[in-house]
Design a protein that fits this description.
The protein is mainly α. It has helices at 17-20, 41-47, 49-55, 75-87, 99-112, 115-131, 138-147, 153-168, 174-182, 184-195; strands spanning 6-7, 10-11, 25-30, 35-40, 67-70, 172-173, 228-229. Helix content is 42%, strand content 9%.
Amino acid sequence: MSSESSQNGDEKPQKQLHELLTHTLVDIYVGEENSHYPLHEKLLCHHSPFFARIFYTKSSSSSRTKEFGLPEVSDEVFALFVGWLYSCALRFPEEERDIGPLLDLYFLASKLQITGLETDIVDAVRAYYHNNSTYPGLRRVQYVYANTEEDNVMREMMVGSVARFLALSDSIPQHWANALKKNGQLSVDIIRSIQEWHLEERQVPDAREASVDRGRGGFKGPVGFSAVEGSSEMEDVKEESGEEDGEHVNGNANGAA
């Protein structure tokens, strides 16, 4: 999986790797331990407008700074970034726990303004959930919401997946019900996502018609419009912690704490 970076939505000219591996290196220091990563300046700045502004200035080359620190980034995440930088490829996640580092890499890519990497990560996360017939759990969605703004591609993919999960479920898992009550923006985004399905009128039951069953009966017995699965309360997640298996339409939701 690979993609070309873009700046301000415009495609950058494609260049071969050897063209970007010049003799000039920059020093990037990562994490609390200041792990040192010497990287090719031209390659880094070709992909990242953020670093281009830092290392390419109008001043003379002798006065340019050749180092930069990212103390808030872990070595694990930056190693993933370096791997992508020199190959323009990501390894697809094999387990749900692999999603966490990819999300942190996505936030880093957003900071560094590397659109190509952002796109690759969204594609990798989307493919994982699709190929494993599961959906993002609540912790993942909350983590993305806590670290992104509106009109974000990862956020839109996550909330679109959740909208489908909830629409196909027989009831709302308790932890999702609690989260939707607390987070009005998430609720609004789910409705927006459903609107983007552009369903035909005949596909949507009309509750104004007397013959329409609103789901209170049927072979499964009375359910009720406000039926919610029993589960424990869950606090809003501001930082990644623990693992989750994702959500499943059969009602076995594993996103709760």
